[in-house]
Amino acid sequence: MQRRGALFGMPGGSGSRKMAAGDIGELLVPHMPTIRVPRSGDRVYKNECAFSYDSPNSEGGLYVCMNTFLAFGREHVERHFRKTGQSVYMHLKRHVREKVRGASGGALPKRRNSKIFLDLDTDDDLNSDDYEYEDEAKLVIFPDHYEIALPNIEELPALVTIACDAVLSSKSPYRKQDPDTWENELPVSKYANNLTQLDNGVRIPPSGWKCARCDLRENLWLNLTDGSVLCGKWFFDSSGGNGHALEHYRDMGYPLAVKLGTITPDGADVYSFQEEEPVLDPHLAKHLAHFGIDMLHMHGTENGLRDNDIKPRVSEWEVIQETGTKLKPMYGPGYTGLKNLGNSCYLSSVMQAIFSIPEFQRAYVGNLPRIFDYSPLDPTQDFNTQMTKLGHGLLSGQYSKPPVKSELIEQVMKEEHKPQQNGISPRMFKAFVSKSHPEFSSNRQQDAQEFFLHLVNLVERNRIGSENPSDVFRFLVEERIQCCQTRKVRYTERVDYLMQLPVAMEAATNKDELIAYELTRREAEANRRPLPELVRAKIPFSACLQAFSEPENVDDFWSSALQAKSAGVKTSRFASFPEYLVVQIKKFTFGLDWVPKKFDVSIDMPDLLDINHLRARGLQPGEEELPDISPPIVIPDDSKDRLMNQLIDPSDIDESSVMQLAEMGFPLEACRKAVYFTGNMGAEVAFNWIIVHMEEPDFAEPLTMPGYGGAASAGASVFGATGLDNQPPEEIVAIITSMGFHRNQAVQALRATNNNLERALDWIFSHPEFEEDSDFVIEMENNANANIISEAKPEGPRVKDGSGMYELFAFISHMGTSTMSGHYVCHIKKEGRWVIYNDHRVCASERPPKDLGYMYFYHRVPR
Asked: Where is the active site (predicted)?
């Protein structure tokens, strides 16, 4: 054992002294009550610091507290010691060494076995043929920094030895995070690192695959050892294949295969026959390149075919990622990438745009010392701490350093990278912000727009004092509803955080080209000929803006002037303009076959945007307001009985209907709610419920039944009983929203009337001035307008009104056929030039595809 004050640059730290086993025991005696053995359910962090992106690969290694099992980098471990008094930490360090080479240039056999016992992610930039790893663990006792090398079974007390072994053998904490998460984190195949690949000259074509043993052209698997393309197993519904891929494994013993049609820049479906489960292959790009497949240019579709089979190679994937252009890598503060965790590019793109905004930089990174010093005992579960950590990781430049000149020369010579961490892994951040959310906590692709609103919600709920950076997005919308028969009007206001622009397809300027292309495409598909070059619809931005401002019909409008239903139209205008305007292009819709589809269009988005003409004007001279009269409450006589009959046990939900809806691309929890609230009446009825409710903030939230306990208790809950938290039952909320009212109105009214349906309807009609900012507390996860209400009645909505003149500074683009698949990339204008953020790759953009974006970020400029 040694005492190393020099570990932290302490003077006099070079001295060392040996101690007997008894001395080690005496040294640990005062700290024994604080040393714990991890129990089932304990999260053991040994890959990442709670306050930074330091890891055992970092220069200072990582310190794991032997009581809380939180991990800290060298810069932050002293803070934890001072705050908690915990003295014993396990120091973990991975050493990476270049292999010694012989005279011929080949690597010499290892002279000793490398010790690799840490369950760490291998750096993708490291070539395992050129580098070797050695892991080191030791106990460090604060504040004197005594070190005890591990393993040390003879000298350490048995409890300490058991605790150390348990920490070292623990699995990733993110696998235990949520037992209800639909998709567990896939294991890395033990065959991936040293997979044998035959140099047999096999090259896989971009399309036209079929099984080598039969004529099947679907459910095909590429064996990663010899390049054989064979069909998968047969399924109960007569789909699938003849199992030739499995037969090939049994004959040859080649363990790994990848499913063709699932290969995208984010990864692919890989199966290990030997391990009998789906696995991860961290070297998949290299393994595919062996057979001539460039993973970064591949993209799959839900039917198992590549988009390349439907569209020519000149597609949005190549244009948005600027493929074929030599892009110059960017390094330094503000140019740090985010590693893809598997379909996490939606999160990465949003966070890159968010932390390019000065208000967010100041709120979190600017307050870093205070946020870190006052963080809770478990900073991994604190939103502000994790936001600050992510912001500092992106903006500090600490994890985005260019290689030195000698390394550049070596890279050119060897066409490879020296060991260096570039980019950060947002695993801890994603685990926290997606906690308990069924969609974001999965490994599936998500909608960047939905995640943006989810993040705004979290920022609102976790504001730092009076500072709320999300206020820069907040604005008021004035809605004007006019009775078409009496011409009388009603004005209301609501809060929103983004502007949704419809795609005006009818305004395409190249309609003749589109018609000709569609005819040629269909003919080519019918005759199985190569598809023609893609023709993309060109839509003027002015047409989309005009469509946004056009009046829309109001379904089932009840005119208080006529005391009857009538035709009504609604127009929306800006009652205030935000500091930062987020514009979403509504590219996603549903076809006649209920399948989600995407408008692949080009819109000439302006660099300078003037929307001052959309400023709300309020009640105009000559306009007459609709009378403030409530419509009669009409509730069918059998409504109570019908509602009681629909209160089925959630375990009795018709899962076949649920799966039919889920296969259309809807979130699974939304499908379960749709089937539940329509009383198991079939997929078609449930689909209609989805179409009506899909814009609601809790559309994808899990099905919850407050106070459920049989028909009697459920009925009491529905018709007046109050739960401990007064959470309105979902059934009554559904009844009120089906009448045309907003969900937040229904929740507000039910809470104000003790969950009484009739009184709640009276309350709604007697409070026409109701809007999101009231003196009730409403916190609704994933609210499309992020209606977070403060407990104290505010003076008014927090808006930063000003001019409606804006300049584009960032945009997020989506590639793929729906928000449930594909890939996201972010472009941000920094220091006068555009930069592309494509996961961990950050480069200067040469041709920013501003016409193909999905979300656009504008900041206000003086007129």
From this structure: 345, 823
